[in-house]
Automatic annotation (TrEMBL):
Similarity field: Belongs to the terpene synthase family.
Official protein name in the record: Terpene synthase
Enzyme class, broadest EC rank: lyase
Entry keyword annotation includes Acyltransferase: no
Region listing for Disordered, in residue ranges: 1-21
UniProt xrefs under Pfam families: Terpene_syn_C_2
SUPFAM superfamilies xrefs: Terpenoid synthases
GO BP terms in the entry: isoprenoid biosynthetic process
Organism: Coprinellus micaceus (Glistening ink-cap mushroom)
GO molecular function: metal ion binding; terpene synthase activity
Amino acid sequence: MSPPSFPSRLMRPPRPSQPTKIVLPDLVSHCNFPLRHNRHRKRITTETKRMDKYHGLKAGLLTSMCYPDAAYPQLRLCNDFLTYLFHLDNLSDDMDDRGTRNVANVVLNSLYHPHTYWSPARIGKMTRDYYRRMVLTASPGCQQRFIETFDFFFQSVTQQALDRATGVIPDLESYIALRRDTSGCKPCWALIEYANNLDIPDEVMDHPIVRSLGEAANDLVTWSNDIFSYNVEQAKGDTHNMIPVVMHQEGLDLQSAVDFVGDMCRQSIDRFVEEQQHLPSWGPKIDRDLAIYIDGLANWIVGSLHWSFESERYFGKNGRQVKATRVVDLLPRRPASH
């Protein structure tokens, strides 16, 4: 879906009266991709539970569903990265643009120079640990895509921090472009290559249809996440979410904006299915590897949808009830902290 073009920066709208609940769109029923689990699921989820801080996150479950065919060493690295990515996301929520730049400096230097750069910061140690394991088997193209897209992630979260500090709500088109990077999905797509031992040529990965498939998967994961995380974020006054963007730009009430974003999510799934019909052939070996990669994107679409109701990150202990009823009781707004 191509959103219309609007002026690039818009200020915070007046706050309407707050409703008490929203009804989520039924995205699970619209997604027909098979939900699969990695055979090492029990081992990886047990190891994740040892990290008490992330007990309710269930990153191991997400990893198992998104990388169902990975061998254990690759699955463990993907799980470590996802847990680390959620840690980064939580850090960036509380940072200004200078803070995100400082973290970016440590992380990116640790990636570009994993054997020569050293930082005492915990985030630097974590980065070196997983990336030194990754380079043992990841193809050069996979490594390059991983680092480049992680660089984009930090550039975009820095902009997000600026927007948050100034109360700016971007227009929909600008938000979509920024959110494709703040989501952190793109490095996770590189890990599909790593987890399945793929070595796909750059010219194939850069093909417009392959890029479009990655974007459609990113959009579904990201936009549905905006719906699922809206309640927690509105309670904090965070405006980096598609729902307030749509409310402001389209002049919609909250439920209508949720429905609007839900329709966009369904269209992104439809777009993913449609684009696959137009893939060219690069020969048996590349076609086989590319099919595994695209299947990996589909695993992320279906896996993320189901995981969102199993994790306690968005709905606390009520995820399964919310999945069944699709009704979310809105949290009260917290007082602003200084």
